[in-house]
Write a structure and sequence with these properties.
Blueprint (H helix, E strand, L loop, with lengths): L2 H30 L20 H10 L8 H12 L19 H7 L14 H18 L7 H11 L1 H7 L6 H17 L12 H10 L21 H10 L9 H4 L16 E5 L8 E9 L2 E4 L8 E4 L5 E5 L3 H6 L5
Antiparallel strand pairs: 1-2, 1-5, 2-3, 3-4
Length: 335
């Protein structure tokens, strides 16, 4: 489909005005909103491409090590801890993809790949060790009232003794926030159910993007006055959702983790749609737009172009995210 044809369809949508978009989104919400709830945190299967291909089999295998854990929960924890960076070191000297303190590694690190070594820097050891440590903590708190997965995560953050002493997740803001973040973020890594709830903020995000149609693209653009109100692709989607009170990360491959992932047939207006150089790895995402229906998105495509309507179907189409407030807030500030 040519760009010219895209503009013709786009013009028709603009001609309908925001009222059309509002009716479309609100109508879909009324029809689908109460059918089936969003994803259940702790789904057993991983969403397409959510975990980098190099680690997907490890996370899928070891995420099923015990009932309190799941692949999605383990993925969320690893992403929160390191952003999949196997060489990162924290200010507290936590190391590697699973962010083990050396003293904790000395007692809880395992030889996950059976090569005779326990290497804190090797994801083949560190990811199994993270799962093993989680499940060990789950055993310690198994008799504590409340959800065993929540208590496991709380024990990971604050220590098993505090969870046992408190009779559940302790009243420590850091620990409660940690549990909530991992639980919410797990929804971005779990394969979605048949249906997903629409979000009420979708129409407002589309409204914002529609008002920017025709604006010239700017690499690194965030729409500031100094930049002449211009955007790049993720700058536009970030600003659109910020206008409805949802903060998104700056770059597209992190925006992918801001909620659950509808299939192509489940797309609704307001979903973010992503394009990747690698069909199996969300970290290779290079472009994002806001879906408006009918196979089209509003996007800021490239230098020399303007914000416009474009078709989403192409060889590099990767997938979509239904942005949720909890999912966006759960994202780490730097990965």
């Amino acid at each position: 489909m040519t760009v010219r044809k895209g503009w013709i369809v786009g013009g028709a949508l603009v001609g309908g005005g925001l009222a059309f978009v509002m009716l479309l989104v609100v109508g879909v919400y009324l029809v689908a909103g109460n059918l089936v709830g969003g994803m259940v945190a702790g789904g057993r299967a991983l969403a397409k491409g959510a975990v980098p291909a190099a680690y997907q089999q490890l996370v899928q295998k070891w995420g099923n090590l015990c009932p309190a854990l799941s692949p999605a929960l383990l993925a969320a924890q690893l992403y929160q801890e390191s952003g999949w960076n196997p060489r990162v070191v924290s200010p507290a000297d936590a190391r590697g993809i699973a962010q083990f303190i050396p003293s904790t590694w000395a007692t809880h690190g395992i030889d996950g790949n059976g090569d005779g070594k326990r290497d804190i820097w090797d994801p083949n050891d560190a990811i199994p060790s993270a799962a093993s440590y989680d499940c060990e903590l789950a055993k310690y708190v198994k008799d504590v009232p409340g959800n065993v997965s929540d208590n496991m995560l709380a024990a990971y953050n604050a220590g098993a003794y505090r969870v046992i002493q408190a009779g559940g997740v302790p009243a420590i803001s850091e620990t409660r926030n940690y549990v909530q973040r991992i639980r919410s973020l797990a929804e971005s890594f779990a394969a979605p159910p048949t249906r997903l709830d629409p979000t009420r903020q979708a129409a407002g995000a589309i409204d914002f993007a529609q008002k920017k149609l025709g604006t010239p693209y700017l690499w690194g653009g965030e729409g500031t006055a100094a930049q002449g109100g211009r955007f790049d692709c993720s700058g536009l989607t970030q600003a659109a959702y910020r206008s409805v009170g949802i903060p998104l990360p700056r770059v597209a491959n992190d925006q992918y983790n801001a909620g659950p992932h509808p299939s192509r047939s489940q797309l609704l207006p307001g979903d973010l749609v992503f394009f990747s150089h690698d069909p199996n790895d969300s970290r290779a995402i290079h472009h994002v737009g806001i879906y408006v229906g009918g196979g089209y998105m509003i996007d800021a495509p490239r230098t020399g172009a303007v914000i416009r309507f474009d078709p989403i179907d192409g060889a590099d189409y990767f997938g979509a995210t239904r942005v949720t407030e909890d999912g966006a807030k759960a994202l780490p500030t730097s990965v």
